[in-house]
Amino acid sequence: MKTTIISEPYDAHAVAFSYALQKKGCDVEVISFSNIPSHAVFSIGFDPEGLKQVKFSSSNILESDTCIIRRPSLPNIDQMVAKQDLDFANSTNKLMSCSIWHKISQETFCINPFEASEILKLKPIQLDLAVKSGFYIPKTVITNDCNEVFESFTDDHFPILYKNLRPAIWAKSDGSGVSAQAVTMLEKDAVRQSKSCLRLAPGIFQQYIRKKYELRVVVMGRTYF
Q1: What is the DSSP code string of 196-217?
Q2: What does the pLDDT average to over 72-81?
Q3: What does the angle CA 157 – CA 159 – CA 162 come to, to the nearest 5 degrees?
Q4: Among 23, 113, 116, 208, which is least packed by CB within 10 angstroms?
Q5: Residue 117 clears pLDDT 80, i.e. is over it
Q6: 217: confidence class by pLDDT, cuts 50, 70, 90
Q7: Angle at 210 between CA 168 and CA 155, to 5 degrees
Q8: Torsional sign, CA 146, 150, 152, 158
Q9: Domains along the chain with CATH numbers
Q10: Can you give the C-alpha Rg of the chain in angstroms?
Q11: Which H or E element spans position 13?
Q12: Widest Cα–Cα separation across the chain
């Protein structure tokens, strides 16, 4: 059984999930469209009878038994294209990528199909669905307004947690790797000092709850990983 996982670079969860599937005897390939064009290419092929292949480099994704669209990312061409051509190049790469993800969702047994993933990757939607599914979530506000944070949390709530609406990853200037921001603990003064930055990029502010343990579980049907 072959499984193809489509995600962004440095996705530790995709790697961990791949490892778990391999332990169960699956043939797994993790691919990232951000590797296009420097390390990969892509194509869609038709013949008179219709769709024939959807290729990422040498792999025909349509031959996969299962596809998982986890965190699809777009080709990384910003440093390779003249500024005046960048909008055109980005739009064509996005069109091609979205077409592939859409066809994969239709033509294979696909977990998290493209249309669903575009909606469900949105953190506010995830939180809403969690509550509707019976999960308890801590007090949360998603905003770019510092005043809204102070109206939502009393002094007793601080320190609170800050999370990005999407992962933030930067390549280190010395080329030694990457830096990533996951969760930050904030005191009241830190929120106030970040007022101007917050206006530029909204984030998730949550009540901090001390935990005994943390579980990350992938559920497929009645199977748990």
Answers
A1: HHHHHS-EEEEE----S-----
A2: 87
A3: 105
A4: 23
A5: no
A6: confident
A7: 85
A8: positive
A9: 2-120 (3.40.50), 123-207 (3.30.1490.20)
A10: 21
A11: helix 12-23
A12: 68
Question: Does residue 206 carry a pLDDT above 90?
Answer: yes
39's tokens? 């390390």
**Terminal CA-to-CA distance of the chain, rounded, Å?**
17
Give the whole-angstrom CA distance, residue 101 versus residue 224. 25
The 3-state secondary structure of 77-108, one letter per residue:
CCCCCCHHHHHHHHHHHHHHHHHHHHHHHHHC
Query: Of 189, 69, 77, 215, which Cα lies nearest the Cα of 135?
Result: 215
| Average pLDDT, integer, range 56-70 | 92
Neighbours of 1 (CB within 10 A): 11
Can you read off the two tokens belonging to residue 120?
């469900």
Q: What are phi and psi of 68, to 5 degrees?
A: -120, 115
* Residues ≥6 apart with Cβ < 8 Å to 85: none
Alpha-carbon span 124 to 150, nearest angstrom: 20
User: Closest by alpha carbon to 163, among 142, 135, 190?
Assistant: 142
* CB atoms closer than 10 angstroms to residue 165: 14
Q: What is the pLDDT of residue 223?
A: 81
Residue 104 banded pLDDT, cuts 50, 70, 90: very high
45, β-bridge pairs:
53
3-class secondary-structure state, position 16: helix
